[in-house]
Amino acid sequence: MKKTMRQKRRYLVAEDICRLKVLKTAAISPDEKKVAFTVEEISNDRRKYFSRIFIVDIGSGEISQFTFGEVSDREIVWSPDGRFIAFISTRDKKSGIYVIPSGGGSERKIIEADGSFNGLKWTPDGREIVYTFRFNDSHWIKDDKEKKEAPLFRHITRLFYRLDDSGFIPKDRFHLWKVDVESGRSVQLTRGQFDELSPAISPDGKSIVYISNRNGNPDVNYLLQDLFTISINGGKSTKIPTPPGPLGSPVFSPNGKKIAYIGHDNPNDSWGVTNWHVWTVGIDGRPAAKDLIPTFDRIAIDTTIGDVGETFEAPPLFWSPDGKRIYFGASDTGSTHIFYAPSNGGRPTRITHNKCHIKVYSLNGHRKQVAAIVSNLTIPGELHIMPSVYRADSKSRILAGPSDDLLAKIEMPKTREVWFKAHDGTELQGWIVTPVGFSKKRKYPAILEIHGGPRAQYGFTFFHEMLLLASRGYVVFYTNPRGGTGRGETFADAITGGWGEIDYYDCMAAADYLENLPYVHKRKIGVTGGSYGGYMTNWIIGHTDRFRAAVTQRSVVNLESFFGSSDLGFDLYREFDGMPWKNPGNYKKCSPLTYAKNIRTPLLILHSEQDLRCGIEQAEQFFATLKMMRKTVEFVRFPEEPHGLSRHGRPDRRVARLEWILKWFDRYLK
To answer: What is the reported pLDDT for 530?
Structure first.
């Protein structure tokens, strides 16, 4: 037989962000024989996202599509007997809860309403579903024409009245509800002026545990959350004593006597410095709340960032059937891994082997296997199945890779992890991406990328932007300076009260490393970043001329105005040692706008007009100031888009953003 020639692969392009099929959620069945998952795709006009449900048979590997059409299905949950799958979907402009037979068939709408559904949980008998729900303000308007118009006015009384990517927060609160699966009859279980979140049902089906913040000023003291229990039929709630601090992912133990949750006991924490750990507490407060992993210097939240399908949610907790282990996810030195800890406390055990990013994971039934969505430096997401107990020789098996066909056509740049020293000797982590066809004999232009957060980490996950820049002939270097997560509390706390100090010197150490690579052109290096990374880009070009060009994205320039213009800016006092009127000097000292007169680097400003996290006024201030100073600056605004444009904005605008970055760097670095 003749040998077939290998098909020539092409380079990655900006439009490929619209061609990726992205795994979003996954749930393993109670008998551990199947996994349900959702795949997100982008419409042909590149303006919308759709997500549909699939089921894979673990034994045979056969994949079946279960929902079709231009729908958005999410939050899939198996019924206790495995006969049905419940999910939330947005169809006909309203959200609702649907149920579909796991053996195949048509979905059935259980309930639909003008509002937001979250936190689906089946009761153990499979007859009801508990969830949280909040009505939209438009629910109360009966005239369809009036619903489409802007209101006459908005009367604001809450400090926290808007949220990026959501807009103005409805006046209703999230409350607990339950719905009868057969009849669709719903019952509201809680009422009042507080949000109830993250419900979980006891093994006997008689009670619900949930999270609520009921202190006098929850908008300001948002880290003061508590656990409550309530009867499955409603009535009076009972508070469970826990240390003051934030909480997440509560779940009953198999015998119903304890509740596990993630959280910490520092209600005065700066932005994400204190490690979230796994805790347990008795349902009546006895035994008292206990941190099971006090010496584990990592955060039990997924803080690894990329630009394909990131959710940034707190991973769920799962008990082993015998109640001896609790499974959790945590960020660790550029990876997000799955661990389990003894339920009576002790050292955690990691069950995932390779350096990777566990985006989603699920256990069920006897919990002998884990289904997980796994990403790495070259794969945006694959569905894996793996043993739930650590073994040195255990391996995961791939069940689905929705983007495999696309990736097989593309010649990917090579990415490698590197470690280098900061100016004070601290070891720092980074990743070098080299162009396709790389040769050490050539000199390449280069780009330094800085992550947002600041309490986040770059890591072993797929990052289309980095690979695209390298595909266009750039050496790309992205690193984790101090102030980020994944390296413990001391590392994360290093910049509290003084952005632009240690983090700036760490970025300069990264620039030194990049300049000293023999294949990098020292006079053709650019810098870019978004959010806090945009802040650092602004700060850097106000303090050095070593970069040939810069692109600042969704950035902060003036901390004092940011305090009042950001959806969460009022919390800035935790990070900068007090309120701006009490410590104005520090706010000014740490604001890049203060150093605008020093800027000589050509700067492109990218910003979304509906960014409520870092308001467009930040970009407008910077652009006007630099223009009046006759600096080289241009400004690109993206209408209708939120802060997270790069991750989940309208697809055609995501492409336009990437093309503007390429055009700017091509102009000045090539």
So the answer is: 97
Q: Please give the pLDDT value at position 6.
A: 56
Q: Is 29 a catalytic residue?
A: no
Last residue of a domain, one of 370, 402, 434: 402
Under-70 pLDDT residues of the chain: 1-7, 311
pLDDT of 5: 47
With the C-alpha atoms ordered 71, 72, 78, 79, is the resulting torsion angle positive or negative?
negative
What is the residue range of 503's domain? 413-669
Catalytic, out of 175, 337, 357, 643: 643
Asked if 531 is an active-site residue, the reply is yes
Three-state SS across 603-634?
EEEEEECCCCCCCHHHHHHHHHHHHHCCCCEE
Catalytic residue, candidates 531, 555, 561, 608: 531
Same domain for 417 and 368: no
Token pair 């769920």 in the structure block, residue: 316
314, 331 Cβ separation under 8 angstroms: no
So what's the pLDDT on residue 163? 95
**Residue among 151, 135, 144 at smallest CA distance from 186:** 135
Report yes or no: 263 and 292 within 8 Å, Cβ to Cβ. Answer: no
Do 443 and 390 sit in the same domain of this protein? no
* Total residues belonging to the chain: 670
The tally of domains found in the chain comes to 2
